[in-house]
Amino acid sequence: MTNQKIDISSANEQESGLNNQTLVREQPNHSKTVGKILLAVVGMFGFGFALVPLYDVFCDITGINGKTSNEAAVYEAVEVDTSRMITVDFITRTNSGMPWEFEAQTQQVKVHPGKMSEVAFYVRNPTKRDIIAQAVPSVSPGTASLYMNKTECFCFQHQPLKAGEEAIMPMVFYIDPQLPEDITFFTLQYTLYDITESAQPADVVAMN
Amino acid sequence: MSTATENVQDTPSTDHGAADHHDDHHHHIPKGITRWLFTTNHKDIGTLYLWFAFIMFLVGGAMAMVIRAELFQPGLQIVEPNFFNQMTTVHGLIMVFGAVMPAFTGLANWLVPMMIGAPDMALPRMNNWSFWILPFAFLILLASLFMEGGGPAFGWTFYAPLSTTYSGDSTALFVFSVHIMGISSIMGAINVIVTIFNMRAPGMTYMKLPMFVWTWLITAFLLIAVMPVLAAAVTMVLTDKFFGTSFFDAAGGGDPVMFQHIFWFFGHPEVYIMILPAFGIISHIVPTFSRKKLFGYASMVYATVSIALLSFIVWAHHMFTTGMPVFAEMFFMIATMLISVPTGVKVFNWVATMWRGSISFEVPMLFAIAFIVLFTIGGLSGLMLAITPVDFQYHDTYFVVAHFHYVLVTGAIFSIMAAAYYWLPKWTGKMFDIGLAKAHFWCSLVSVNVLFFPMHFVGLAGMPRRIPDYALQFADFNKWISVGGFAFGLSQLIFLWLLIKACRKQGEPVSSQVWEGAEGLEWEIPSPAPYHTFETPPVVK
Amino acid sequence: MKLVKFISWLSLATVGFSAIAVETGRSDLNLRKGVSDISHQVYDLHMLMFYICVVIAVVVFGVMFYSMFAHRKSTGAKPANFHESVKVEIAWTVIPFLILIFMAVPAANTLIDMEDVSEADITILVTGSQWKWHYEYRENDIDFFSVLATQPEQIANKFDKGENYLLEVDRPLVIPTGKKVRFLITSDDVIHSWWVPDFAVKKDANPGFINEAWTNVNEPGIYRGQCAELCGKDHGFMPVVVIAKEPAEYEAWVNEQEAIARRAREEEQRLLAMNMSMEELMTTGERVYKAVCAACHQVNGEGLPGVFPALKGSKMALEDIDGHIDIIVNGSPGTSMASFARQLTMSEIAAVTTYERNAWGNNTGDMVQAKDVNAIMNGEE
């Protein structure tokens, strides 16, 4: 913009009778402007990728996608709210191509917010091959996921099972008494995925 | 524009010193193919962009004809569903990235230097590059259609995981070509920004910039902000599909809905990238043919800036059905509705410009008036779509298809045609064939409404978009829509014919002002515009 | 003022005309009112927005066309000089703003009503997969797939199209009227969207995540919808059909379905011990193949090159019997080949495997029996 002012003044000079030479445009500093824009381009490309962790943070704050935390919550001694009873419905699914049997041993629990509860899940690998599984949790309504605190969950780790093996997987949780009043019922779904191919070598070692 | 100008471009100058960007100016204009391959002249590059955009418009249009032919009747007649999906996908990609965006870049190339009194774009060699990589991007995209398994078939929005785990190998070509298109647009945007920042003629202050320059400046910033995000999104799709990452795969801790957030963070500003320059064009044409200054210039600028800023906080209105908490739905609903305020201001300003003017109806004005009416219809259906509870009913139906075609075809494309008719005599020095132009206008106007208006009805009645076959209750309207589609497609051949005639310099010579009432620097240079203009800057008072 | 009169006359006429057009109940012109309280609210909201938009359009276009008519150059109009007015600019910023608030309030109310998360009477897990829906009743032992029932010949224009062309399924979802039914919606592969216009319910089915929606239907009847999110080749061919029954009828239906499911399991066990003849296997296999497999692998077994592999002459169909059964039972992760263990019975899988190994010149002579499928399912081979 300072360039512009100079231009104007040179134009004024021209009007006052100087020859055309002074009117010649001053070489503008393009490279500086280009540099700044390129920086913005690179920055925005980075921002595109930064949206991935930002989205996770955003979801952790707002519960927008109904994912529960994938780290164990530390139980804080909160007062159990006996005036409310919350129903939690468990849905167990295996993704297409995942041959395990997978069931919640208790399909539905009713708990007071603040009280610890444990639910067990049964899995069996009926095939002839060893399989590593990953359970992906999802809560609906999504907001409830913010108040679903799991102190222990099989979904925090990969779950390896050898051919024909079966196991009981525990999940310990409590519901934050801050849970909004209008939610009296929510659903927690686990989907099991076969991740044998992409699993880390550490898991394979753990399996043997 | 209130610019009393003093045109000094004819002043012979013997010493150009540091001001000279060209090696070859004032010499002969190079001939033959090398002129076009190696050109760094903004007018040549503008012409290349415009012809490329028009060819892509015809190619994308041909795909639309395939779609409409298949949908002429219920049942599968002409193509099988997989190919149908490729047609809808590539039609969308070509029209967005191959037709509308390059057409606006072409207009910017031609007009921005002439409007601000600059001799050329700031970075002429990069200008050449940004055009010439574009044909390769589209060759790659079109070539992917001939791969085994066909080209991209996941919609131009390429939602994961349909575009990752469940797509064909052609996805790699798709990603590559989108990258090239993105680089091209970014280079174009850089050029526009640097040109406007650094090369305005003396006295051309920001609040004297012609509206087209203003809207393009803001568009260029939008491009800089969001094209890299698109590049990031396609890169993630590429690595998810071929390199084992799981950005969008729940099994690996990703989230397919996140793709939509990232995509629409690009996608909504992209919508405004395709309409802001149109606002600029209309803001030139309406005052010219009303013989009256643009009403509320300053508010037009502020409205454009607010539309651009708001476009960054409304993206999730494309995603209401993905399942969001109520507060998020409310936020995006209200933010989206807010956009209609500055957009409304623009429409009101145009109407106020016409009010008590001295209006005549030359072809550019006809297109501009059609733009105002039909774009407003598209804007109003957009307002209806913003209302979350009813959006659950409209979403992914033909109502949406009707909405965005009103905004993009009768909006963006009509504005491009208006611009072509408005500035064509300046470019060629000859008046175009007015009879043909009027035939083009009236055929397009009638057919485009037969084509898109009934889509509102089938959408409301429940026809989902992107389906190759439909239930019998939609049959009558679809027949009409297809007839309108073919007619609209054929009408564009009139335009092609007219353009060929214009390029062969047929027609009456025109004055430098061309249109009575036209104001601005570009109307003060001779017609046709000389190969080099404003080598010494004009003075804007 | 002339203009004001002109515009008010025009808006009245337009609104009146559009009201007549949309209220005469032509279902092919407008949104359906639907059959739940929510869908009625949504319909009213839609009409309110529509009328507001019509009035805005008429006023703006009225002024514009009046100006085009009255201020045209050919009648000698001289241009005025004004080009700025802060007052006017403020007015047409503030007035639309007020209109928006007027629109946002009822919209927000409806939205809050829609997102009611209170406990439901019945919960149904809806799972989309390429190109069918699966319904699982959480409170009862009922689950089934629901696939397009329109004959392929109708789609190929060989037979006349029926009344509910593309909007009919083999097993519709059944729900009771007057009860709050919750739909938990998810997907096995790509994103689908479960949509029944009459309930004003449209929710995306996202793989790995659940979404929920609900309805409370007032009137018994058959309600049809479609998948609304592009989900691949046969996106246009996965309709949703819901039958709403009176609660008593619904109870009877549930009991009947549970009984059928029990009998089917017993039958399955009985068939395990039996061997079917080649002829039986081929007949059943062909039927299953055409209904389930042909959408991708094509009736001639040649698939779609580059998209869906051919079975005719394929190595798997000619040599690897166990691998062949395994891919039908378990699917192939990361591809469109889904698991059919839930959709087909063991004897159907046996039959279709046999069919694929002996049709189109794949004359292996192999016969696969239900017990072979059972062995693969339980990892006994």
UniProtKB/TrEMBL annotation, chain A:
Coiled coil stretches, renumbered: none
Keyword Lipid biosynthesis (UniProt): no
Subcellular location: Cell inner membrane
Pfam family, one: CtaG_Cox11
Transmembrane stretches, start-end: 37-55
Keyword line: Copper, Membrane, Signal-anchor, Transmembrane, Transmembrane helix
Superkingdom of origin organism: Bacteria
Membrane topology, record value: Single-pass type II membrane protein
Family listed: Belongs to the COX11/CtaG family.
PANTHER family, sorted: CYTOCHROME C OXIDASE ASSEMBLY PROTEIN COX11, MITOCHONDRIAL-RELATED, CYTOCHROME C OXIDASE ASSEMBLY PROTEIN COX11-RELATED
Protein name in the entry: Cytochrome c oxidase assembly protein CtaG
From TrEMBL, chain B:
Top-level enzyme category: translocase
UniProt keyword annotation of Membrane present: yes
Residue ranges, annotated region (Disordered): 1-26
Transmembrane domains' residue ranges: 48-69, 89-112, 132-154, 174-199, 211-238, 258-282, 294-318, 330-351, 363-387, 399-424, 436-460, 480-500
Enzyme Commission number(s): 7.1.1.9
Keywords from the named record: Cell membrane, Copper, Electron transport, Heme, Iron, Membrane, Metal-binding, Respiratory chain, Translocase, Transmembrane, Transmembrane helix, Transport
Predominant localisation class: membrane
Cellular location(s): Cell membrane; Membrane
Domain of life: Bacteria
Catalytic reaction annotation: 4 Fe(II)-[cytochrome c] + O2 + 8 H(+)(in) = 4 Fe(III)-[cytochrome c] + 2 H2O + 4 H(+)(out)
Cross-referenced PROSITE patterns: COX1, COX1_CUB
Role, per record: Cytochrome c oxidase is the component of the respiratory chain that catalyzes the reduction of oxygen to water. Subunits 1-3 form the functional core of the enzyme complex. CO I is the catalytic subunit of the enzyme. Electrons originating in cytochrome c are transferred via the copper A center of subunit 2 and heme A of subunit 1 to the bimetallic center formed by heme A3 and copper B.
PANTHER family hit by this protein: CYTOCHROME C OXIDASE SUBUNIT 1
Protein's UniProt name: Cytochrome c oxidase subunit 1
Organism: Glaciecola petra
Gene expressing this chain: ctaD
